[in-house]
Amino acid sequence: MSGLAEAAVALGYGLASALVPVVNAEAYAVVAGQRAGHALVAVVALALGQTAGKLLLFESARRGSGRLARRVAKRGKSGRAAARAARWTEPIRRWLSRRRTAVPTVLVSAAVGLPPLAVVSLAAGTAGLRRWEFAVACLSGRVIRFALLLLPAVLA
Asked: How far is it, in rounded angstroms, from Cα 143 to Cα 107?
């Protein structure tokens, strides 16, 4: 497969894996490392696709947070579901609302996976983090993550 075709496939796979939890981008990165022909292109394209998908989550949370707050205020909270969501989102949202902790939180989440990047993406959208800061931190973390996964396969 040519470099451009590899990049297009990796970009699409990254986008799909950002939105569909069962599509595993990490597995794709390892497989791309086995081929090693265009491994760096695949890693960057995969990270770009993941970042684009997480930006979709970020923007949907940013635009929907006002509507969701109004809807919850009308109906009242639904017990266990609200408690479960608050357990993850509230601490992350507090971290993301502070300038000095927001970008490092996104970067660590994108590179390590804890807290889950999907949750961080949604919380960052509601916390008011700047789009470009989120995108740069997410892309950097994803490139680091995929490069580290790919490295043993390339060196073998």
From this structure: 10
